[in-house]
Amino acid sequence: xxxxxxxxxxxxxxxxxxxxxxxxxxxxxxxxxxxxxxxxxxxxxxxxxxxxxxxxxxxxxxxxxxxxxxxxxxxxxxxx
Length: 80
Prior knowledge:
The protein is an all-alpha fold and 80 residues long. Helix content is 85%, strand content 0%. The chain has three helices and no strands. Helix 2 (20-61) runs antiparallel to helix 3. The two termini are 33 Å apart.
């Protein structure tokens, strides 16, 4: 289970089981985790763009029309 959710569920069950400092730290940690996940996701998408871009270029060099078309379409689908 997500540690941030676990703390909130603990607090919901018993308001005195988690102090304000822990709730504030939990909130900040959740925000930080979300920012890291968003950054990782963006980097993954950026890597996919570059992979499709490179594959399309390589296919064109190899005169493989089918693969070139595939990778161009793949790239365009990622950009949408």
